[in-house]
Amino acid sequence: MEVIKIKGTDDTPNVILDAENNIIEFSGRSLPEDIITFYTPAIQWIEEYAKNPNPKTNVIFRLEYFNTASSKALLDILLKFEDIFNEGNEVLVQWYYQEDDEDMLEAGEEYSEIVDIPFEMHSY
Amino acid sequence: MGNLEYLKTIYSLHEDMLAKKFTLVYDGEITHQITKAFTSLAESKMNSYSEDSSVKRKVFHVMVECLQNLSKHAEAYEYKGNKGRYSNGIFIVGKIGKEQNEYQVITGNAVDKSRVPELKALLEKINQLDKEGLKELFKKQMREGSVSDKGGAGLGLIDIARKTGEKLDYHFVDMDEDNRFFILRTKISRNID
């Protein structure tokens, strides 16, 4: 499967989508100028991945900041992984937040309430 | 207005900004570049006196959401019979400095009269909710809204209320037959709870 590696900037996150090495990761800051253009390739990759997922999928979010427009895109991504989970595959979301960033912890908790996948919260 | 009078208005503009404690006043089109420039300006200013990171994050959040509201919703209108239509919004940042008790971000933009009731209803709804209620509303809008919605499903306003822990302070000014000027004033306290 194709590997997607997007290097982050001050307004777009680092994205790694690598099925072979089992790395799925979003990190950094997310306030892209055009949300749909930025996140569509990732969504399409996950749809493709869902056809033949790894037995265990780890999804890592290590975001410093995201705007409300991105929050909707992140939910769309999580819902794609929920589909994979509902097909009987193992999926774990690892949500990282800076130790003093309560809002980021809370954002992760909110996603875990909306989406039916196991979440692990990690401070750093 | 003579040239001298005109030049003098620059001084009164300067005085006005000082008196009202405005650090930044921008009237124009809000682009992504502008958003990045203004937020990094505020960030480096706050870094210069080692502002608390949670306060910095809140100011950054509020500025981004305010600027995006302007870029998405500022209505084009004709200014006092002038040719052409203006879709400018005004964006103001209050004085930034460690001697201030709070940060202030103010936006103003034209809104078509027909959209006012809906906007007012959302603002009032947000102002009636407590912390838990805002959280539930945010989750609901996130689930039900779509990214392509021009409105961003109202997430920005809910987020501003959540991040500041304050009621939304707003006002509508009559502009002309078709438009109202929507002003939103946001304060971010520097006292950490």
Tell me what you see in this structure.
The complex is a heterodimer of chains A (124) and B (193). In chain A, a hairpin with a 4-residue loop joins strand 2 (14-18) and strand 3 (23-30). Chain A is globular and about 35 Å long. The termini of chain A are far apart. Chain A has 124 residues and is α/β, with parallel strands linked by helices. Chain A is built from 3 helices and 6 strands; from the N terminus they run E-E-E-H-E-H-E-H-E. Chain A has a 6-stranded mixed beta sheet, with helices on one face. The mean pLDDT of chain A is 96. Chain A has helices at 35-49, 68-86, 102-114, and strands at residues 4-6, 14-18, 23-30, 56-66, 90-97, 119-123. With 193 residues, chain B is α+β, with helices and mostly antiparallel strands. Chain B has a 5-stranded antiparallel beta sheet with strand order 1-2-3-5-4. The mean pLDDT of chain B is 88. The A-B interface holds A 10-11, 31, 33, 35-36, 39, 65, 67-69, 71-73, 75-76, 98, 100-103, 106, 110, 113-114 and B 32, 35-36, 40, 53-54, 57, 60-61, 64-65, 68, 135, 138-139, 142-143, 145-148, 152-153, 155-156, 158-159, 163.
Compact summary:
The complex is a heterodimer of chains A (124) and B (193). Chain A is of the alpha/beta class.
Which terms summarize this structure?
A: 124 residues; globular; B: 193 residues; Heat Shock Protein 90; 5 strands; 48% helix
What's the structural blueprint in terms of helices and strands?
The complex is a heterodimer of chains A (124) and B (193).
Chain A: E1 4-6, E2 14-18, E3 23-30, H1 35-49, E4 56-66, H2 68-86, E5 90-97, H3 102-114, E6 119-123
Parallel strand pairs in A: 3-4, 4-5, 5-6
Antiparallel strand pairs in A: 1-2, 2-3
Chain B: H1 3-19, E1 22-28, H2 32-48, H3 53-73, E2 89-94, E3 102-112, H4 116-128, H5 131-144, H6 155-164, E4 169-174, E5 179-189
Antiparallel strand pairs in B: 1-2, 2-3, 3-5, 4-5
Helix pairs in contact in B: 2-3, 3-6, 5-6
